[in-house]
Amino acid sequence: MTSVLDVPRRTLGVPIRRVAGRLVVGVEADALEFSEVGSLIFTSANGRNRVVDIVHIVAAAYECETAEVYPDVVEFLGELTAGGIVEWSSAPAAAR
Q1: Alpha carbons 1 and 6: distance in angstroms, whole number
Q2: Which Pfam families match (predicted)?
Q3: Which of 26, 47, 57, 65 could disulfide-link 9, Cβ–Cβ 3.0 to 4.6 Å?
Q4: What is the mean pLDDT of residues 51-70?
């Protein structure tokens, strides 16, 4: 299970590009085109932001409650992890 203190980061070597203003990750048939919120989550998974930070970033951007976006952020990060697009580390003890 993902902890709010876990730190997601984009997996090195995964191709990233913009096509018609949309973020596209991967190659050819395996490429994923992200929505605006998906792009925000993906770009926020930078190896420094914890899950809780990403939840706050998304909630602030869309002017909603963190409890409302938390399940969607965690689910999306889980899908990216399953696809090999995001990997995880734990936050340093000082950040906890």
Answers
A1: 10
A2: PqqD (PF05402)
A3: 47
A4: 97
